[in-house]
Specification:
The protein is α/β, with parallel strands linked by helices. It has helices at 15-26, 80-87; strands spanning 7-11, 31-34, 39-42, 52-57, 73-75, 93-102, 106-112, 118-123. The protein has one domain (7-123): 2,3-Dihydroxybiphenyl 1,2-Dioxygenase, domain 1 (Roll), CATH 3.10.180. Strands 1-4-3-2 form a 4-stranded mixed sheet. Strands 5-8-7-6 form a 4-stranded mixed sheet. β2 (31-34) and β3 (39-42) form a beta hairpin. α1 crosses α2.
């Protein structure tokens, strides 16, 4: 097993707002994929065998939560403080500021996104 995670989905009740939030804080474009029962805005990936994920509106199957369910950590490299500095202007909140895990494992932070989801950020030491 190369990665413990292969795919993740972040719930959204307003897909346009959620996509704008993540595009703003990561300074990227999310790719739309609309299926009959689910609408997605996928994070860009370089390698189809790598870890991928999307912000999704499934009409209620996924429910945003600041307290329940798994906590996923998105890649905050090279310095997650750059991302944290964009969070509040994009409509989110910082729950846990940039915190060192250890010199070997880098830094972490936790935010609440524009949809009310609790999302972790992680950056490795350079």
């Amino acid at each position: 097993m190369k990665n413990a995670i292969s795919w993740f989905e972040i719930p959204a009740s307003d897909l346009v707002r959620a996509a704008k939030f993540y595009e703003t804080i990561f300074n990227t474009r999310l790719n739309p994929l609309d299926l009959p029962n689910i609408k997605m805005r996928m994070f860009p990936i370089e390698d189809m065998m790598g870890v991928g994920g999307a912000v999704v509106d499934s009409g209620g199957f996924h429910k945003p939560s600041a307290t329940d369910g798994p906590l996923i950590y998105l890649n905050g490299n090279p310095d997650l403080q750059i991302i944290l500095d964009r969070v509040e202007k994009a409509g989110g909140k910082i729950m846990v500021p940039k915190t060192e895990i250890s010199p070997e494992y880098g830094f972490m932070a936790v935010i609440i996104d524009s949809e009310g989801n609790r999302i972790g950020l992680h950056s490795v030491p350079v």
